[in-house]
Design a protein that fits this description.
Radius of gyration: 17 Å
Order of helices and strands: EEEEEEEEEEEEEE
Number of domains: 1
CATH architecture: Beta Barrel
Number of helices: 0
Helix content: under 10%
Shape: globular
CATH class: Mainly Beta
Number of strands: 14
Strand content: over 45%
Largest sheet: 12 strands, antiparallel, barrel
Structural class: mainly beta
């Protein structure tokens, strides 16, 4: 999260996805993304980054960790380039719900320090959503830790609405995303946060390269932020342990 700090249940997004079906046995995932830029909800938080992830899931319940670490730190993104997110979630069929603890390492505060705005590097966010297959709808709200403030200087319970529409075209897997900040908060600091605004309109294309013993998904993503009038483009690939 830019300036403070994140369901990249990544978000889970940057993000780790909740399972869509209940498993009868414990399943684990371990992998990492390598991206040319770290862009989160329309805001650029860093340059080339390594983003490892690990998760365990059982009968719809999952716990996972996701991180982002800049290879070449830049003062412009100080405070946002080293991040660890821990998510507890539950999913059944298309429905999913979860809680994420977002933590920024490089803002001068220790991990085991909790409190309210300005006294901790943690942000706690709840999320709920449903995946219809052709469209996924998710709502996220900060409820504790470092949050934004509203026009009266009080905790804003900053929220975010995200719509994702996956489709396949020309042998590529695509995903179109729209992200909306529904009411005033200064949490999304790169935006004009004076009420309802759209801060993400993106299109992602992915192609999976097949090798004899593994797959290598590679992707590119164009991300526009209408609120701040910014445009970002990133490329990346994913490595996953089988």
């Amino acid at each position: 999260m830019k300036g403070k700090r994140m369901m990249m249940v990544t978000a889970l997004a940057g993000s780790m996805a909740l399972p869509t079906m209940a498993q009868d046995k414990v399943e684990a995932t371990l992998g990492s993304d390598f991206v040319s830029s770290y862009v989160w909800r329309g805001q650029k938080n860093g340059g080339f980054s390594v983003q490892p992830n690990a998760s365990l899931s059982y009968k719809g319940l999952s716990v996972g960790a996701w991180g982002s670490f800049a290879i070449a730190p830049n003062e412009k993104y100080a405070g946002t380039e080293e991040e660890l997110d821990i998510t507890l979630g539950y999913a059944v069929k298309g429905f999913h719900v979860g809680i994420t603890d977002y933590f920024l390492f490089n803002n001068g505060l220790p991990f085991f320090k909790y409190g309210s705005i300005g006294k901790t590097a943690h942000t706690f966010e709840g999320g709920i959503g449903y995946d219809f297959g052709f469209l996924a709808i998710d709502w996220f709200t900060n409820f504790a830790g470092t949050d934004g403030v509203n026009k009266d200087g009080k905790r804003a319970y900053s929220s975010y609405l995200q719509l994702d529409a996956p489709f396949r075209l020309a042998k590529l897997d695509w995903n179109a995303t729209v992200g909306i900040v529904p009411y005033r908060t200064d949490f999304y600091v790169a935006d004009d946060s004076h009420g309802f605004h759209v801060n993400t309109v993106s299109l992602k294309a992915q192609y999976t390269i097949e090798f004899p013993h593994f797959q290598l998904p590679v992707y590119g993503q164009l991300i526009a932020n209408p609120s701040s009038r910014d445009l970002h483009y990133l490329v990346g690939f994913t490595v996953t342990a089988l």
